[in-house]
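Weekly sync notes, structure subgroup
Attendees: PM, AL, DS (notes)

Item 1: joint prediction request from the bench team. They want all three components modeled as one assembly rather than separately. Inputs as received:
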Amino acid sequence: MALLDNLNPPQLAAVTIESCHALVLAGAGSGKTRVLTTRMAWLIQTGQVSPHGLLAVTFTNKAAREMLTRISAMLPINTRGMWIGTFHGLCNRLLRAHHRDAGLPQTFQILDTSDQLSAIKRLLKGAGVDDEKYPPRQLQHFINAAKEEGLRPAEVEAYDSYNRQMVELYAMYEAQCQREGVVDFPELLLRCYELLSRNALIREHYQHRFRHILVDEFQDTNRLQYRWLKLLAGGGAAIFAVGDDDQSIYAFRGANVGNMAEFEREFAHDRVIRLEQNYRSHGHILDAANTLIRNNSNRLGKNLWTDRGHGEPIRVYEALSDAQEAQWVIEEIRSLVGEGRLRREIAILYRSNAQSRVLEHALFSAGIPYKVYGGLRFFERQEVKHALAYLRLMENPHDDTAWMRVVNFPARGIGARTLEQQADIARLNGCSLYAAVSQVPGRGGNNLAQFAALIDRMRFETQNLPLHEIVDHVIEASGLVQHYLNEKEGAERIENLRELVNAAAAFAAEDGYAQTDAGALPQALPEAGIELPSPLAAFLAHAALEAGDNQASDGQDAVQLMTVHAAKGLEFEAVFITGLEEGLFPHENSLLEQSGLEEERRLMYVAVTRARERLYLSFSQTRMLHGQTRYNMRSRFLDEVPESSLKWLTPRNGRARTADVAGGWGRTAWGEENPAGSVSRAGKDAPYLGSSEGYSNRRTSAGVEVNGRTFRVGQSVVHPKFGEGVIIGMTGNGPDAQVQVNFGSAGTKTLALAVAKLEPV
DNA sequence: GAGCAACGTGTTTTT
DNA sequence: CACGTTGCTC
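Output from the run, pasted for the record:
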């Protein structure tokens, strides 16, 4: 069968496995998406399931689109109406179709993360809660974490008064959302889960319908998503889960890697298939990745291999400063481009966004086209969100979040005092702000009434207009366009508003609307009372669920800059991993727990496996961060990569970080192979002039001078109380300089150099 | 009610 | 350093 041509044995086994639960451990670059889509096509082509009986779920819209594209290419079927989408997108479909049973208005709106935060702030203000004691962000995290565990307020255990208050606020937040007819992201999932578990008729319909459930990036699922899948598969559907525990990098937002092991135990005991042949990277790169990740415990276990040969060694560079590191990157990029490589095939990766600035500056000065990923997406721009807020109010005037957003934007003389009055009345009556308008006295009340009338008028005037004309009308009638016309940097914002009109036209014209909603109609379930949402409601849901491109477009051949997280799933001919320093990568905030460090290591694993042919690793002795110079040691991850795969462009010095054994710290001279335990005392400083070889001794790190004594990272010091220790980090300069010292058994202390009685040994 | 200055605060991110 | 938020003044 042509479909199965060119699959390797494990891929073939995975694609054609019997109709039963299975777990595919797919290493980086092992053909994961291909296996997933080919299995779907194969199931359909062999008549084992109709397109209608398949459910495929991913985490990103991009992955869902990719899947649809590939299936269309493999099979001559209409993918429209197939249930392929993100967890949130599919839940949205289900909730729209069964909004009554889910207890939601048909026009329910979706709050994105920032909408949710402003809703929470408004709640705290209204309830008179001290937002210093209960920070909105913390409450948001508390609520979302609870929902992702499947817990409603009544089910959250509160041990102390603080937590009781948090739970209380959670309950109030829920009531507020319900009253306003809005749902946040985790609510989409939880509400959908509850809908299915409580309503036997609907549950059985979908359990019966979906015979095969395929899950992408299974390592990123949270507990609720796992339960959701289990529930849907409860009627005998086969779950085909694909993932890579080594690439689980989203634990910080609730992903539970444990789901993979649990799934194996619960469903797929002897049906685990490993895809270990890597088609992406050369041998040295894979060796580095394999050796590195072996330092993690609790892995399901997997070793990537390739038949592409070793390729070039991984190049390692130590810079004096972040600026110099950037300069070096520029030079390497110039020579890569000189060799004929495309700029878009070169990626510069970093752990945190703050690191991009220096790199951007250097690229800009050098006149090298580049593109930074991350940052604001289209539907997150303030002018676009303003326009969407007007549209939301037309659809549902009781959406208080949208109301507050634009009630006085553009300014129409409605101030804080008036809005407080209005909020008080609304709270007293338990109604929305919109419903409270008529009771607000005075001129403020008048202005509010005018605003309410504006919304009503816009709704009336756009009746029966096609979607994009509605949007066009609203950006004008709201005064948004006029407002930005008067602003000096408004031209781009107006562009974006016009672009929103285009987006609406594209959404209506394409399969967007039909795809996300009409396709949801469960024909076999007329008694459920299905209604079609309006095109506007569908468009608003689309805007919330798909925030748009992170940038991209414009087609120019440009170097790609992004965080390691953003690089997951991508690949490049040449990759730079910059800022490989202790405290940065691994990030200091993750070092408190073993699990945090292991996630950082997986992150490094992801970074390394992005490269096809050439990989560069770099770190710097000093780095500007938060306005002060930091002195970092090179990342431990550099030392977890086999020396035989590396080529040092600068002399290799010392060890990556303080030894775990107290006092076991030193630096080897350049040229030594530095076998474990072989450490020698530091030599004298020599000026460091770049990448030329031949300095047998030089500084591992820049130092700080205090009272005529020089301190630097890696140095042994003695303290009258804590005894002997090693400096493992420095921040600040001059009188503000602080050092972190590892005193072995006495622990690690942070000391101010100007005050502490530290003596160099 | 609107605009500006001081303050403080800083991972990673998709839906 | 560079952002967003708060608090203050006109």
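Discussion: Confidence is low (pLDDT under 50) at residues 513-529, 658-701 of chain A.
Action: AL to compare against the crosslinking data before next sync.
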